[in-house]
Design brief:
- The chain is built from 10 helices and 8 strands.
- The chain is an alpha/beta fold and 312 residues long.
- The protein has a single domain, classed as Alpha/Beta hydrolase fold, catalytic domain (Rossmann fold, 3-Layer(aba) Sandwich).
- The protein has an 8-stranded mixed β-sheet with strand order 1-2-4-3-5-6-7-8, sandwiched between helices.
- The protein is globular and about 55 Å long.
- The relative contact order is 0.14.
Length: 312
């Protein structure tokens, strides 16, 4: 029977307590999986996947990023990273969690799983910090054009200048997410692009810690992060020996129905990554871990991780 625990650590911002949620197997784990969640959600939504990993012998842990879940001092901070350098602070918190896990499980391989915004954070992490992970699973990512990212960042910076970085702009939110439902013939809710599983979509909508409008500051920081990872010169700083597995739905608008995911995959190959693979799931949308075939996805991730475990 896997077991759940929670702890917290002080953020790299020096003042916010970052909530950590961890699932562990009954016996000593054979490895560790660290999870980075997406924008406008929280780590508890990964409980099913983390429990699955724990039931298969891995400790699984993830934190609520700054401005998300229980890593806020009050409601005004929901969807807000920082006045400046927010992206680096969030990646720094991921590094703190990694180092905590490495100390708690000395000698065990640690894998990174990043979904959506968490995939962009994960890609930033492996550029900035390189070593430390045995492999990385990049889920629900994209590779937007520099012009599009630049326009989004410029708009967010302008709103930050005139309305402040904590301003919640419906215009920015619409720019970021408003077109995601357009590719589907039948639309039941504004969040249908997340998953074909209507129960999951309804739970997301009903959750007060999900689906909120992020601040202009977060959009500014995220666009800056996406610009950073999309630059091939930065991608070339990754450890070429790090195994990477891209997974996404072929109907995920974040990854342009697979086209953006393939561009990211090709860039990783172009900069010399030696073990990089990709799987696009037919008809699946953005949240693979909450899709109708989530068990298949989880099994594929587990199989990939187990195949890259160091030999004893």
């Amino acid at each position: 029977m896997s077991k759940l625990s929670e702890t917290a650590f002080t953020s790299t911002n020096g003042r916010t307590q970052i909530r950590v949620r961890k699932w562990e197997p009954e016996t000593a784990p054979k490895g560790v999986v660290q999870i980075a969640h997406g924008v406008a959600e929280h780590i508890e939504r990964y409980d099913g996947f983390m429990r699955f990993l724990a039931d298969n012998g891995f400790a699984a842990a993830g934190n609520d990023h700054l401005g998300h879940g229980k890593s806020v001092n009050d409601d005004s901070e929901l969807g807000f990273f920082a006045e400046k350098d927010g992206w680096d602070l969030v990646v720094g918190d991921m590094k703190k969690l990694h180092d905590m896990l490495a100390a708690e499980y000395p000698g065990l391989p640690i894998f990174l799983f990043g979904h959506s915004m968490g995939s962009f954070l994960a890609r930033t992490y492996i550029i900035k910090y390189g070593n430390g992970f045995t492999g990385a699973v990049i889920c629900g990512t994209g590779q937007q054009s520099p012009a599009l990212v630049g326009a989004g960042k410029a708009a967010a910076k302008l709103i930050c200048t005139f309305s402040g970085p904590k301003h919640k702009s419906n215009m920015l939110n619409t720019m970021a997410f408003g077109a995601y439902n357009k590719g589907f013939d039948t639309v039941r809710t504004p969040c249908d692009w997340l998953s074909r599983d209507e129960t999951n979509v309804d739970k997301y909508i009903a959750d007060p810690l999900c689906g909120f409008v992020p601040t202009a500051g977060l959009f500014r920081d995220m666009m800056g992060g996406i610009a950073f990872i999309s630059d091939q010169k930065n991608a070339a700083k990754m450890d070429p020996d790090l195994p990477v597995f891209f997974i996404a739905g072929d109907k995920d608008p974040v990854g342009e129905n697979g086209a953006g995911v393939r561009r990211a995959f090709e860039m990783f190959k172009a900069v010399g990554m030696k073990d990089v693979s990709i799987k696009l799931y037919p008809e699946c949308r953005h949240e693979l871990l909450n899709e109708l075939n989530k068990d298949e996805v989880a099994a594929d991730v587990l199989k990939w991780i187990e195949a890259r475990m160091p030999e004893n």
